[in-house]
Design goal:
mainly alpha; about 90% helix
Length: about 100
C-alpha cells in the first residue's frame, strides 16, 4: 500500500514538474514577443524623430533662403519641436538663427 502512495506521489511530482516547465517556456516566449514589440516601437519612434528633424532642417533652409517669413518658420518649427518634446534650452538655437542672419 505504501508503495502505491510512493508511485502516486512520484507521478504527481512529475506532472507538476511538466506543468512548471511548460509555463516557464510560455513565459519565455511571451517575454521574447514583448521585447520584439518594444524594439519595433522604438524603431518606429526613431524614424518619426528623424522625419521631424528633417522637416525642421528643411524649414530652416527655406528661412535662410528667404522662402518663408520668420513668423511662419517659427510657428512651424515650434510645432515640430513640441512633437519632439524639446525643452526650452534647445529652442534658443532657433532664436539664434535670426540673430546670426
Amino acid at each position: 500500500m505504501s508503495e502505491f502512495f510512493l508511485y502516486a506521489g512520484g507521478l504527481i511530482i512529475a506532472g507538476l514538474s511538466a506543468v512548471a516547465i511548460y509555463l516557464n517556456w510560455r513565459l519565455y516566449q511571451v517575454k521574447k514577443q514583448i521585447k520584439a514589440r518594444e524594439a519595433e516601437v522604438e524603431r518606429q519612434r526613431q524614424l518619426g524623430r528623424q522625419h521631424l528633424n528633417q522637416s525642421i532642417q528643411i524649414i530652416c533652409r527655406a528661412l535662410l533662403d528667404g522662402q518663408v517669413e520668420y513668423a511662419e518658420a517659427s510657428l512651424r518649427v515650434s510645432k515640430l519641436m513640441d512633437q519632439l518634446s524639446v525643452g526650452g534650452s534647445a529652442r534658443g538655437g532657433v532664436y539664434r538663427v535670426r540673430q546670426v542672419r
